[in-house]
Fold each of these.
Amino acid sequence: MAYVIPTPPVHALPVVGTGDLFPVRRVYCVGRNYAAHAREMGGDPTREPPFFFMKPADALQVVTDGQTVDHPYPPKTQNYHFEIELVVTLAKGGKDIPVAEALDHVFGYAIGLDMTRRDLQDDAKQLRRPWELGKAGDYSGPVGPIHPASKVGHPHKGVISLSIDGTMKQKADLSDMIWSVAEQISYLSSYFELAPGDVIFAGTPEGVGAVTQGQTMVGAIEGLGEISLRVV
């Protein structure tokens, strides 16, 4: 039996220091996982149950280690925002994963950006519509190379930051997360059967804002290096 159209490519992320690739299945993103960011977005920073939205796998843009890559400014927006995030990649899946066992499912970690057409997201919120037009656009998930947990461990603390043309815009600590990576994995697995190849964007700290064409974004997480993107 043959496919009636060409099969879509497998979207994958590089593993740092190797020629290996991590194939991406699904991309989950947690919202408002830092208290200060929850407040700046008009939310409640208490430990209410986390909520998630999704991006398609082909929305991830590979950012080469040590290079500045071009990032296309998307259509249909006048307010395009950066959000620096820790990215978690899974080597094992499952249902109802206990928090105490959740980190055993992690393959590694990377630096990512949840790029957002904020005006479209705000419209969707007001109209009680889904967020995909604001959150799931082409190239909306730039991600650097994956650092295997076997090499870097499981980062629970460390500075996470983003600068625009050398000016710091976001700076916090991974320990400021409301819901830890292990808790996110456990909670997600109660709603979805997770699988190898799944990716989780673990939330952004305060200071999100607009970026324009010609500007360069540099995102950094302590222990994971940095990624650099020029908006074109």
Amino acid sequence: MSHVVHHHIRHYLPYWPYAAIPLGVYGLSKLLSWLIPGPKRQSSLNLKDKTVLITGASTGLGRALAFEFYKRGAKVIVTARSLDKLSQLCAELEAAKAEFGWANNHEPVYRYLDLTELGDEVSAKQQIDDLKTLAIDGKTIDVLVNNAGMSMRGSCADTPLKIQRQVMEVNYFGHVLVTKLLLDSIPDNGAIVVVGSLQGKVAIPYRSAYSASKHAIQAFFDSLRAEDRPNLQILTISAGYINTGFGSRALNTEGRQMGVEDENQTKGLSVEYAASTIVKALICRETELLMAPFMLRIAIGLRYFCPNFLFWMLHKRGQNDPHQSSKKDH
């Protein structure tokens, strides 16, 4: 037996530096993360008896997140444009609590919120202040989940500026405004969750408005976390495909919903798994969550270390995209 062990040791010993270097880098990064002041130094986030406000909660990931927070004892305030869907969601939350015996003393509540209608800080203040009165103590939003979103399909050449602005209004300006107006109501031991996208790090063809908006929201919250409240947890999610029906609601170049789901989207993560993963990362005081398969993660590295190769790969991918520019032959 010892002969076999010694044989394996002699066989694999020359290769130990190849494993030691990445393991050492990983260990050093974890040590630095623990030593550096910031959210990671705080105790785990206990969601029981905390107030959580979710935008875009009527469908998809926002809806699944409401269940995750509610079963952990939080008071959830769900917002979206569809009051019927929000009312049904709250009824289902209460029914699930009764069925599964969740220990939650708080009634879920809902309110109408359209990020494109908020305007500026002055016009939106009353509506956002009304949301704060729904909190457990009438003023504190412990966790803000910026989840509402809109996508699009179309080439840079064909997509009208109106569509570019519409997507940016929802995915960027709306969340910036809600965050600004609620920032003083979020305690230092609270958190902000930003549901971004892998496209906030690597843009892909025929999704220009969506990719641009996700790059913008990533940049805003990177700036915010580096300003005067470095201990406030800001968790940004760089998600790959999630099976939410999001693609079917994407706008085409004429401003109409696609009505057909992307094949990649249907093969994506389930909303239940994605919501559970996000909440676990939040509880563990993470600040970045890359929620995508390994092959998609490679694209981020290529963007910095071999960008021309990545751009060529994305171009080849775009050759099979059904939303290629109608002007390319002109």
Amino acid sequence: MLIGLTYDLRDDYRDLGLPEEALAEFDSPETVAALQAALERAGHATDRIGNIRALAERLVAGHRWDLVFNIAEGLSGRSREAQVPALLEAFGVPYTFSDPLTQALGLDKAMAKQVVRDAGVPTAPFAVFETASDALDCGLTFPLFLKPVAEGTGKGCERASKVMDHDEAVTATLDLVARFRQPVLAEAFLPGREFTVGILGNGKGASVIGVVEITLLATAEAEIYSFENKELCEDRVLYQMAADAEAQEAGRIALAAYRALGCRDAARIDIRSDAHGNPHFLEVNTLAGMHPSHSDLPILAAKTGMTYDALVAGIVEAAVLRQGLAEDVRRAAS
């Protein structure tokens, strides 16, 4: 197939004067090169498209692809991850990963928690804070954990995110709202083990790749898989495969959340346990990072024995089968 690549490079936005934290979700040239090489080793032709503005220009000019491998995060708005899929759908171009509805739903952590909660998937009690009065009148039991409602890559997750009383909740809320210009998700702090779960496939055919436990080392910011810990994960975080009963339950909950949210092709689900060892849904990463050695999903896959090439091929295969492209591919190959 001819596979286009859509992505947002950090370097493309650095000239806008954005701070490093704002650029955290965007990709490095190494990620795009690794993804392109994996696709070409699988026998596909590739075409680097770039961000949504480049994609729009190419589509209007009449360019088309058999499939677009989409890792574009978008620049602004809580529906930013839905923008490239929506544009591709408007022009009838098949693509990998979830559709616009699920992309927007997944990025808004409060909306995602509402959906999985209503589907019977365990998730910590939560509320959305927009003002200081929200933090004072929330009715939740402390300690709480606060983070921006529509960010990824640990942005806004830091030591001050864990609050022990209303005064700390007000201070953290005002700080996060000012910095990220969006509401804040507040949820009961879960003090147990933390897992990340990789899932591949669609519908009833979706399955857990593996469950990895995230352990923070002595060099890490304590208790929190924060933005800083993620950025410096090689020195601060230990990733270990987990297969005990609690980890298996984390995998079951992650798969249930994946299906409830309508995720497609692949995703990564974050899970954390309460004080009694009961896993709870934290959030979904519908566009999981694809750096071969720095991103959680490829790290997880590698620990199960799945190569980076196999992971990329599995995502493409899931998208091909889901969209009924398999016969077209066979005809083209023959």
Amino acid sequence: MRKWVQEMGLGLAAVGRPAYITLGRDEDLGRDRDVAAMRARTWEVLDAAWAAGVRYVDVARSYGRAEEFLAGWLADRGIRPGEIEIGSKWGYEYVGGWRMDAARHEEKDLSAARLRRQLGETRELLGEHLTLYQIHSATVESGVLDDEEVLGELRALRAGGVAVGLSTTGPRQAATIDRAVATGLFDTVQSTWNLLERSAGEALARAHAAGLTVIVKEGVANGRLTSRGAPPALADAARERGVTPDALALAAVLARPWAGIVLSGAATTAQLAENLTASAVTWDDEAEKALAGLAEDAETYWARRAALPWA
């Protein structure tokens, strides 16, 4: 996997399954969320991303049928391995049964047995397109970063030419990032950083300095930093600059010197187009000062995220 510096990628969490925790999905997707409809929407967003020059796509075993939809798109469009980089993740399993009202939508297990099974499933779908395989939502508390069976499997995968990484979650992201760097194993780290949740910033800078590519997820905080939920200060700053709140929020992420790939989680082509304008938005000291007050305590941020409904 090549080193990426301040480029936009596409994450498929919001389009691979019928329900997710992004604000405004009723407006974006309507009621028709059967498999065929979601496949068509996924392909539309992928087409738009490809046309715009996006060359990194992020999926996971738990994103419903996202890997399946992506594999079909790659084959249909005749895209060869190496023409686009694909990162997937293992550890969560989708258990929602394609139901909006499922009691649980995903189940976490960071065991070596699940790694082996899910890697096989991912390779069956994505084959040689798979560039990066990541632990999904690693934490220090889970023990996965000290599990020698898991780490051995990841070392073997890396030796075979697939980069390995991890994604982080929760108010102790920084501790997880530092522990991952200390292993010397990982090529990438994918973490949440946005104008509301900045707690991982210094650790991500350390990871970048250690040679890891930093992938940033949830740059618009599951819709809380878009026009649907933007705090007044962000809405006003975006209006003054003639851009959308999501574009300004993503420009803030792109301005971090440690940011490698910044993911758009767009569910529609219109959202993707707005997100991608972030690359042309200037983030300056005035914006930094005006929006510094949006930062929340990490515990507060993650509690609010956990309360978002699957819709």
